[in-house]
Design goal:
The protein is an alpha+beta fold. The chain is built from 16 helices and 17 strands. Strands 1, 4, 6, 7, 8, 11, 12, 13, 14, 15 and 16 form an eleven-stranded mixed β-sheet that branches. Strands 2-3-10-9 form a four-stranded mixed β-sheet, with no helix packed on it. The longest helix is centred in the last third of the chain and has 25 residues, at 423-447. The structure holds zinc ion (ZN). Zinc ion is lined by residues 26, 29, 31, 81-82, 84-85, 182.
Length: 482
């Protein structure tokens, strides 16, 4: 931790750029967006395509010249690639599911959606795109995120194609996997409104929560965060790969210390791109590139976002985890169950079931704990057991409402169902048991006449422990004791 950096005095200024993969098929074809580690089905060798138009930026021109000498080798997978990733077929219409998710995120970030927009080609000359460009489309702008330290504006939100994955590079030969190429990415760029590392972290966490409330990919490599920062109105430095939230503050603080040291000794900060390292330090990668070179994607028409489409999306906007937590709290569910529901992604299922049977904690126990216990008991994989149970939960709750079974029967009933016995069959036997119990309770009362209801209750509960619940036995006793 840094001792005493005064960020206000340092005129600390920072903005974030976040790239997140969406959990859908690819952006301009129907290929699956899944990464592969097995052997490719095909290997394709290419030299760089000639870049259309004139290369205005010096750095791109230089990079282009050096790329011309290189050979690119692409690993192609039949299930994950088609002619589009090879740039041998024009792109299909933009993936509507990906567009919908990107619009959800834009709305959650309070952005203004752009109703008509042109899909663009961004020149890429490192071979990570077989076409020599990356398709990108600006879909929203002028949003805002609230932090405890003030508002942070969102400048732009773009939907774009992820690049191919670089596997290796040596002596003019670069190997890429094509599995990742074309996976939809949302790019969120904030304004340089961030005034301290803590505020940067809060902003990143808040945007992260919004992303995860929508259908995005999870895990390492699915989110990439860059932090732009400067002090004392010096040149801006871009830090790449700042996604480990545990290192987030340390990386920024270390980088500011580096820039401050330069500045204190009268040296200017160079405008450059640096890489965040696991040590919390950063290393130089390259000078800051010029502005992206873009030109229109001539194979696709204008992207129009209709008012109807947008209204539909607004109606079913996902809720944030903190909001869902608040709602679940109100149902009377205990904290442990709320946490489990969120972690196991079962909030929707819970809500549906809680409409049918009015005991939230029991429902949570049934869908969160019983499957695990039963799977362990009978030695069937959890997913199999859950698949079977998903079909019967509603019927079980209905049976509970109709008093065909009691809550204490449910685990046993589910165990039988998981072993292949139908719900109807299990309820029949449970019912017989239940009728037997009623008969036995009548006998018990007959054998010991004159006791109070509470005394009978004690007797019944100790005799039929686990077979009948308190509410039901009380009802039976009341029927026969005046
Ligand atoms: Zn494809």
């Amino acid at each position: 931790m840094s001792e005493s950096l005064d960020y206000e005095k340092l005129k600390f200024k920072s903005g974030l750029e976040i790239h997140q993969q969406l959990d859908t098929k690819k952006l301009f074809c129907k290929c699956l967006g899944i990464l592969r580690n097995d052997e490719p089905d095909l290997i394709i060798k290419r030299k760089l395509h000639a870049v259309a138009g004139e290369s205005g930026e010096v750095d791109i021109a230089a990079q282009y010249q050096s790329s011309l000498k290189k050979e690119f080798i692409y690993q192609f997978y039949k299930n994950n690639n088609c002619l589009i990733e090879l740039d041998e077929e024009p792109p299909h219409e933009i993936n509507q599911e990906a567009l919908k998710i990107a619009l959800q995120i834009s709305l959650l970030l309070n952005c203004r959606i752009i109703p008509i927009t042109q899909i663009m080609r961004k020149t890429v000359v490192d071979g990570s795109n077989t076409s020599g460009f990356q398709r990108t489309v600006l879909i929203a702008r002028d949003g805002v995120v609230e932090t405890s330290l003030g508002k942070i504006r969102i400048d732009t939100i773009c939907l774009e194609e992820d690049s191919a994955r670089k596997i290796s590079e040596d002596s003019g030969k670069i190997i890429y996997k094509l599995d990742r190429l074309g996976i939809p990415l949302i790019e969120i760029a904030t304004a340089p409104d961030i005034k301290s590392p803590e505020q940067a972290k809060e902003t990143a966490l808040h945007i992260g929560e919004i992303l995860r409330s929508c259908k995005v990919k999870r895990g390492i490599g699915t989110i990439r965060q860059d932090v732009n920062l400067s002090i004392r109105n010096e040149n801006r430095v871009e830090l790449k790969g700042v996604q480990d939230m545990k290192l987030f503050l340390k990386i920024i603080e270390n980088e500011i210390m580096r820039q401050k040291k330069l500045s204190d000794s009268g040296k200017p900060t160079k405008a450059e791109v640096r890489n965040a390292l696991p040590s919390g330090l950063t290393e130089f990668i390259r000078p800051m590139p010029g502005a992206d070179r873009m030109y229109p994607e001539t194979d696709l028409g204008l992207l129009k976002i209709s008012r109807n489409f947008l209204n539909e999306i607004k109606k079913e906007l996902p809720k944030l985890k903190s909001e869902i937590e608040g709602e679940l709290n109100k149902t009377g569910l205990n904290q442990e169950m709320i946490k489990l529901l969120l972690n196991q992604n079962k909030v929707e299922e819970f809500k549906i079931l809680a409409e049918i049977y009015k005991n939230p904690n029991f429902i949570a126990k049934m869908i969160l704990l019983f499957p695990k216990e039963i799977s362990a008991k009978i030695g069937k994989p959890l997913e199999k057991v859950e698949e079977i149970f998903d079909d019967v939960y509603i019927d079980i709750l209905k049976a509970l409402n109709e008093k065909k079974i009691t809550e204490s029967d449910v685990k046993e009933t589910l165990t039988k169902i998981s072993q292949g016995i139908s719900l109807k069959e299990t309820i029949k036997t449970e019912k017989i048991n239940f009728e037997n119990i009623e008969e036995k309770i009548i006998n018990l009362i007959k054998n010991k006449p004159g006791l109070s209801i509470n005394a009978y209750m004690g007797l019944v509960m100790s005799e039929f422990k686990g077979k009948i619940d308190g509410k039901n036995s009380m009802e039976i006793i009341k029927k026969f004791v005046k």
